[in-house]
């Protein structure tokens, strides 16, 4: 039985709308060599085709423990203008740059890469930066989510 057929068989044994935790690694050898998840679209497609949904949790640790902590879940501050903003023309001599860090849909990335490589960076907060974060983080790792919201700078956007 091929890997794809095995996955389809296993997924068919669950009711629709079953959350699938983890990450669909097809062609794991290629991923180990390159770090590029070439089979991700296929895996996500198989999960969706089965009527289920993926909660990416690669590298997330202790989810069974962390999701039992009951901590306040503050909402991130939003930079809402005091009055409706009027679209402005970009100046011809002005360069606009946007910094956005993505892949935050993966709870494990939020726990490891975001915390270790981005959030702890000494220069964080000196420029406006957007960082994507898994909507599942507040439920699966409420203490981690709480930490990010509590330690946001004025220039952080989640």
Automatic annotation (TrEMBL):
InterPro entries tied to this protein: GxGYxYP_C, GxGYxYP_C_sf
The GxGYxYP putative glycoside hydrolase C-terminal domain, residue ranges: 94-158
Gene3D superfamilies per the UniProt record, alphabetical: GxGYxYP glycoside hydrolase, C-terminal domain
Protein name (Swiss-Prot/TrEMBL): GxGYxYP putative glycoside hydrolase C-terminal domain-containing protein
């Amino acid at each position: 039985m091929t890997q794809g057929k095995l996955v389809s068989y296993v997924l068919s044994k669950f009711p629709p709308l079953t959350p699938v935790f983890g990450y669909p690694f097809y062609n794991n050898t290629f991923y180990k060599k390159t770090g590029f998840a070439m089979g991700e679209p296929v895996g996500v497609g198989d999960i969706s085709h089965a009527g289920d949904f993926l909660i990416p949790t690669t590298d997330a640790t202790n989810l069974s423990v962390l999701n039992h902590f009951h901590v306040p879940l503050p909402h991130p501050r939003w930079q809402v203008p005091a009055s409706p903003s009027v679209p402005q023309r970009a100046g011809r001599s002005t360069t606009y740059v946007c910094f956005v860090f993505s892949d935050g849909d993966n709870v494990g990335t939020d726990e490891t890469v975001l915390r270790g490589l981005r959030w702890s960076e000494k220069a964080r907060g000196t420029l406006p930066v957007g960082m994507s974060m898994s909507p599942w983080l507040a439920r699966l790792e409420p203490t981690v989510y709480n930490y990010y919201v509590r330690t946001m700078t004025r220039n952080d956007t989640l």
